[in-house]
Amino acid sequence: MTQRKTLLWLQAGSCGGCSMAALEQGGAGLFAELQNLRLDLLWHPSVSEATGAEVLKILADIETGAVKLDILCVEGSILRGPHGTGAFNRLSGTTRTLLDLTRALAQHAETCVAVGSCAAFGGIPAGDPDPTDSCGLHYDGAEPGGVLGVAWRSRSGLPVVNVAGCAPHPGWIVETLGALAAGDLKASDLDAFGRPLFFAGHLAHHGCSRNEFYEFKASARVLSERGCLMEHLGCKATQAIGDCNQRAWNGGGSCTHAGFACISCTSPGFEAARETHVTPKIGGIPVGLPLDMPKAWFMTLAALSKSATPARVRQNAEADRILVSPKRQK
To answer: Which residues are noted in the entry as [4Fe-4S] cluster 1-binding (predicted)?
Structure first.
């Protein structure tokens, strides 16, 4: 039987949304999932009963080696300001900064996990202007480095495992922890940004309920309409990694299923977008094209698709409900 392992969860510059996402995992909830994975939660600032001196002792025991730390989870951006001191974000009741604490604990952890795009890349707190000088653990935006440095590797030899998303799917979080608990996550299982391939090997576009409209380039013009959201309403699902439309979120649905455009929240720099629900265009052509598709091919296929759009698809695309049902096959 797999030996029980320990997990510590820190919250830095965070809204707490990633923790909220994790709590939704599974029919029995997060804590039952952790028990099933043989993971002992040493401390989580939002859900653990330990406070004050009890917490400081847990942290001190990890740093002295008295308590083994297998998985360090960090949620939220690391605030380096002002002037590299990290003093904008201190551990409550102490003078110690989260910048210093994160660096110290990461050296003792068997594996380090960035939970959410803030911890992975900087995320929302790193949006311009950024007086807090926020960044991720192993990345500063799309640039390697972050607070741990380019060459950093955990005791297991892995880089920071980036469970990106704003917030990440609860399954992404717990399945990553499960793979680590079982010793079944290798560097080859991560993409170029350290995101686990079991979800990063997909696009948010895969499985989208609006795919028929995408195929025929039958587009919605306002958010209440059923058509594809890419051409006019800023959807980046064809460019965004994640199996978002292949697994239910908290019981059902996804962003595009609910009628909202994908903002590519699993990607570094997503917070820099100046407009949402608007597709940037040059000469009427969307700037963001599907990954791996040359612009000339896309334009040719789009023209062919539009010319072949069934009347049913065209009418339904610009309606808030199905107006025309598929005809029965003769």
So the answer is: 15, 18, 118, 166
- 73 appears as a binding residue in the annotation: no
The C-alpha atoms of residue 173 and residue 21 are separated, in whole angstroms, by: 9
Is 255 annotated for ligand binding? no
Question: What pLDDT, on a 0 to 100 scale, did the predictor assign at position 275?
Answer: 73
C-alpha span between 89 and 82 (Å, rounded): 10
The first and second tokens of residue 39, run together, are 């993971």
Under 8 Å between Cβ of 231 and 194 = no
Determine whether the annotation assigns residue 208 to a binding site.
Answer: yes
* pLDDT-based confidence at residue 293 (cuts at 50, 70, 90): low
In angstroms, the Cα distances linking 182 to 20, 178, 189 are 24, 6, 14
Nearest to 47, CA basis, from 26, 13, 23, 66: 23
112 assigned to a ligand binding site: no
| pLDDT tens for each residue of 169-208 | 999 999 999 999 999 999 999 999 999 999 999 999 999 9
Alpha-carbon radius of gyration of the chain? 22
Q: Domain spanning 202-320 has what CATH number?
A: 4.10.480.10
Residue 135 known to bind ligand:
no
Beta strands 69-75 and 5-11, pairing class: parallel
Q: Residue 235 annotated as binding?
A: yes
How many Cα atoms sit within 13 Å of 64 on the Cβ side?
7
Residue 170, SS3? helix
pLDDT at 297: 62
pLDDT tens string 11-42: 999 999 999 999 877 777 888 999 999 999 99
| 18 annotated ligand-binding residue | yes
The structure's pTM equals 0.90
Where do the structural domains in the chain lie, given as residue ranges?
5-200, 202-320
